[in-house]
Amino acid sequence: MRFTDNSDIIELNNYSGEFDSNKQAAYEALLEERSIDPEKTNLEECNYTYNVFGFTIDIEPKGAGRPRKGRNSIYEPPQDRDYKRIIKSRLNEIFDLDEPISGEFDVHVDLFFPIPKGFSKKKALAAELGHLLPITIPDLDNCEKIFLDALNPRLQKEDQIKDGEIVKAKKVPKADLFTGIWTDDKTIVKLSSSKFYSCKPRIEATIAFRIKDE
Fold first, then answer.
1. 7 contacts 95 by C-beta, under 8 angstroms
2. Distance between the two ends of the chain, CA-based, in angstroms?
3. CB neighbours of 40 closer than 8 A, spacing ≥ 6?
4. Neighbours of 112 (CB within 10 A)
5. Which sign does the torsion angle of CA 27, 29, 33, 36 carry?
6. pTM score > 0.85 for this model?
């Protein structure tokens, strides 16, 4: 991975650790259920190193809209498509990726929503300091969805689907191309997010991916 000179990116040091805690009860149940003798499986102990990086996108968080039903197909709302296009464009300014990163991902996203104009000075200050949090729409999971979708690749051509079948491949404008952070957001195995208020609306993401030690 390379970062362009004009990026406002936070690079964190690598750290090592187990990917998840050992659930002893489940482990023992598996051995019993499948009659597994651990000493005969030749399973080597695995250690992993986590690579971590973070970045900020100066854009107001929004939730994903409902898919629209067309005459013969279901399509993404145009405003969602435009929103993801802006995020991909910002990511192209930050990252210079030859290809998506392979692996399993641990992602944390902080979403900073604008402070409502109707807030008093006292209330606005409390919101900026995190003492007052947004409990209004959009829902957290909808915000996660549209943002994480934007981190998927956008390649030279995209399949167009009609009645559940691929009918043609549409060429994507060069300005909209994006290599992608990962091959697909299904490779995210751990996800957390938080909502805050701020006078500077933005999305901050911290992404970890693990590499098996030699």
1. yes
2. 20
3. none
4. 23
5. positive
6. no
3 state SS of 210: strand
pLDDT in tens, the chain (214 residues): 444 444 444 444 443 444 344 467 787 888 888 888 877 776 667 778 889 999 999 999 999 877 666 566 666 778 888 899 899 889 888 888 788 888 889 999 999 999 999 999 999 999 999 999 999 999 999 999 999 999 998 754 444 444 444 444 455 555 567 788 898 889 999 999 999 999 999 999 999 998 777 6
Give the residues across from 10 on adjacent strands: 54
d(CA 191, CA 109): 8
Q: Which contacts of 69-77 are long-range, i.e. CB under 8 A and separated by 24 or more positions?
A: 72/162, 72/163, 73/161, 73/162, 73/163
CATH number of 2-12+48-212: 3.30.1330.70
Domain boundary assignment for the chain = 2-12+48-212
Q: Could you tell me which of 207, 10, 205, 11 has the C-alpha nearest to residue 109?
A: 205
CA torsion, ordered 123, 125, 9, 193, to nearest 10 deg: -30
158 in Cβ contact with 85 (< 8 Å): no
Which are the contacts of 25, defined by CB distance < 8 A and separation ≥ 6? none
